[in-house]
Amino acid sequence: MNIIALFDNYFLILMIIQGLVSLIIDTRNFKNAGMYKSYKQSRVIGILSIFISVIIYSLVRIFA
Fold first, then answer.
1. Residues 41, 43, 49, CA angle at the centre, nearest 5°?
2. Contact 22, 30 (CB under 8 A)
């Protein structure tokens, strides 16, 4: 298996895990602490990181 393709798979998995941690754990902690601006920013960052990584992964698979 190509090393670059293997890295792409690991990258996607790692970014999805990071985005889910940001969406689930960080947002809950920020909301409970009353940090509503950070709560909203954490949600946006989590969603965008998952979305962008899936798009990049898909583009690499289509054009490679």
1. 100
2. no
**Could you list the pLDDT tens digit for every one of the 64 residues in the chain?**
688 778 889 999 999 999 999 999 999 999 999 999 999 999 999 999 999 999 999 999 998 7
Name the token pair of 10. Answer: 């690991």
> Tokens in use for 39?
């709560």
Q: Considering the entire predicted model, what is its pTM?
A: 0.84
Among candidate residues 55, 54, 44, the one with its CA nearest the CA of residue 14: 54
Which has the closest alpha carbon to 15: 52, 50, 59, 46?
50
> Beta-carbon neighbour count of residue 50 at 10 Å?
19
11 and 57 Cβ atoms separated by less than 8 Å: yes
